[in-house]
User: Fold this.
Amino acid sequence: MKKLKPHTVDWAQIERFLASADKKLASAHRILTFDEEASLQQAYEAMLKASLGFMFSHGFRARSQPGHHIAIILFVRSRLDKKHAGLLTVFDRLRRKRNLALYDDTGFVSRYDAEQALEAAGNYLNVVRADIATRKP
Assistant:
């Protein structure tokens, strides 16, 4: 089954997704003071929202099916400059850590984990936003 489908490029929609990513990251910073797991999850979701905007800017979207988060990460990895591969590795680790925290009691999230997620998410949003800007008319 195909993981992606065509999506009409809509710059206003892309901007809304990027704005949502920024809000999620700001929330993640505030939440860190009292809930590391929720902070990490919000940081991950910020990266996911930015990635969706990135996909939309290329004229694609992920199909809603099992594994679609992985499909999003693979899509971004295939199109983002290779010098940012480390950020995508962190993004995928956050996906796994989030899943463990959500579905398994072994997924403890430390303050350090959450702080690292916030830093990576901030860097990732900057990289994705800059890349999208190169295509925007």
Notes: Strands lie at 4-6, 60-62. The chain is about 70% helix and 5% strand. The first strand starts at residue 4 and ends at 6. The chain has a mean pLDDT of 92.
